[in-house]
Amino acid sequence: MGGAGPPDGRLTPVGDHGRVAIKGVLFDFSGTLFRIESTQRWLTAVLEETGTAPAPAEVAELARRLERAGALPGGAPPHAVPAHLAELWATRDETPERHRALYTGLARQVDLPDPSLYDALYDRHRSPEAWRPYPDATEVLEALRRQAVRIGVVSNIGWDLRPVFRAHGLDTAVDAFVLSYEHGIQKPDPALFRLACEALGADPPDVLMVGDDRGADGGAAAIGCAVHFVDHLPVERRPDGLRPLLALLDGPRP
């Protein structure tokens, strides 16, 4: 998506002794606090919901092709973006219409048993059932709240993710949601990070951005935020990727 994050270190430090004195933390959504289900599970759930029953081998092959196409938002990126979708790919998170058109367009590269499945798959990925919080997300958010740190979620996305947080009991931990499609601005545009800092009532030098994408999330450094990166891994493979934040932030407040 363009842009560049900080250099090789995972943190752009602010404050003394390697700790970060902050008033607010901004989190990315997908790959940072939550992870989307696997492509195989995504497809299987929709097939079950719609009563479509291909043979297991066919389901596995369709899932493989959908993953290669990058049809699951929050999943693997496309192996290649078709020329007719290139402009949508670049601006997919600016409006709900662009987001849906892009991802259903990517899915349509795969010949599915029923044309209604393309929209059903898109709708499935927006459901709370399709997402799981990382194991330490609740612990970290609650610890920040106890320390009176303001919490925001800033995400490149084409739909309202608040119901996902609500369904998993994490909505009350978040003070502000700043979503690209609500502003027509995508990360790494500094304007989206400025809006997020304003929503927290904090100046950028007092804010830490936590994300998994150096290009998109690293854009926060342009306005003076500290930036920390986590690995975008399946939930089972990242049990404590957020927990190191607590040590980073365990210092005196301004």
The CATH class of the largest domain is: Alpha Beta
CATH topology of the largest domain: Rossmann fold
Series of secondary-structure elements, N-terminal to C-terminal: EEHHHHHEHEHEHHEEH
Helix content: 25-40%
Sheet of most strands: 5 strands, parallel
The CATH homologous superfamily of the largest domain is termed HAD superfamily/HAD-like
Coarse morphology: globular
What is the number of helical segments per DSSP (H or I, 4+ residues)?
10
Derived structural class: alpha/beta
Spatial sequence of strands, sheet with the most strands: 5-4-1-6-7
Distance between the termini: 34 Å
Number of E strands: 7
Organism: Pseudonocardia adelaidensis
Pfam family, one: Hydrolase
Keywords: Hydrolase
Protein name: HAD-IA family hydrolase
Description:
InterPro entries: HAD-like_sf, HAD-SF_hydro_IA, HAD_sf. This is HAD-IA family hydrolase. Keywords: Hydrolase. This protein is of the alpha/beta class. It has helices at residues 39-50, 56-69, 86-90, 96-107, 117-125, 137-146, 162-167, 180-183, 190-200, 244-248; strands at residues 24-27, 34-36, 131-133, 150-155, 176-179, 207-211, 226-229. The protein folds into two domains: 24-33 and 134-248, HAD superfamily/HAD-like (Rossmann fold); 36-129, no CATH class. Strands 5-4-1-6-7 form a five-stranded parallel beta sheet, with helices on both faces. Strands 2-3 form a two-stranded antiparallel sheet. Helix 7 links the parallel strand 4 and strand 5. The longest helix is centred in the N-terminal third of the chain and has 14 residues, at 56-69. The two termini are 34 Å apart.
